[in-house]
Amino acid sequence: MKSVGLMTCYINNYGACLQAYALQSTIEKLGYECKIIRYTPVEDIKKPTLSKAVYRLIRDVYRIFKHKDYIKQLAKRRKFVMFKREYLCFGRQNYNTIESLYKNCPEFDVFVCGSDQLWNPLIHNNKNNEAYFLDFVPGNKGRIAYAPSFGISQFPDNCMAELKSLLSKFHYISVRESSGADIVEEAIGKRPRVVLDPTLLLSKVQWEKVFKRVEVNKPYILCYLFSNQEYICNFVRHVWQLTGYDVIVLPFADIDKEKKYKKLYNVGPNEFLWLISNAQLVITDSFHATAFSINFNTPFYSLLRNIQGESNNMNTRIYNMLEIAGLQNRLITDKTPLPEKASTNIDFNDANAILEIKRNEDIKFLKEALSDMLV
Prior knowledge:
By secondary structure, the chain is of the alpha/beta class. The protein folds into two domains: 3-202 and 356-373, Rossmann fold, CATH 3.40.50; 213-344, Rossmann fold (3-Layer(aba) Sandwich). It contains twelve helices and 13 strands. It has a seven-stranded parallel β-sheet with strand order 3-2-1-4-5-6-7. It is globular, with a radius of gyration of 21 Å.
């Protein structure tokens, strides 16, 4: 069996872990052995002055005293660890630096990078991360990009020359957003295919195999929010008053401080999926929560995390997702008047048909790219 090395993001974030699972499982269903390359370029895994164990103990004790809810977050972290152990398949070698990848390239027949914001230079200290462009891969091995996202619509000028060089080494390129296709076209003069996020390559029926139930006894609105914008808090409060449903919050933003809302901490990726699928309504500024709501046919409102003009404006991801599904009317901005009633009925028929066509087309693209590289 031919082997595929997957370079992706799998940090303790719902979207990151679940898209990694979806892309890996899709490649496996095509008949290949697929393993995720253990590369995590974050400060948390670098060796501190003390040993890692002592350092993390001191850090966690400090956080427990400083933030009373932090100990509850530790249970959530354990859920992510368990999810990765059960659902993700990793290569043996652990790479903490780009240099280690160049010195000891993992052994696979072909390499795939994607999805998530691998190609966003603003989250990599305003530079391209060569590892996520598979620059360490020998020239005789195939390189395929499936749905990496730049996350932004305006690419920094200082990174463009290197981007052109990095992209020129790929055999197949696809991206997640049309704005990303614009950036690639500007860099290399060729427009790549715009494909679905990996989470949308799996149907709801396939995702249900991963669900884990949460004990919730009343109809609820699920809030998964990153932004602290006032209009978002006002909107949630307004919809709560209109519907009378319980509000369940997955703590992150300032909305968590609302004592009348129920906060759930011990929620891993499996429970996250169940909560979205069983909600009466989802209110979110998360790309992946929006994507799962559409995929599961759960009524939702999608809000904008960033203010217009912010350098790291990620709103383009939401625009593109809603445009693909034909559900732009579910977008709420700071200019949108508060509704007189909460709309919890959405006709998903057209969106389902569009996604089914796109899903088949994009899986076919990935299948043909892998087959061509492994002749």
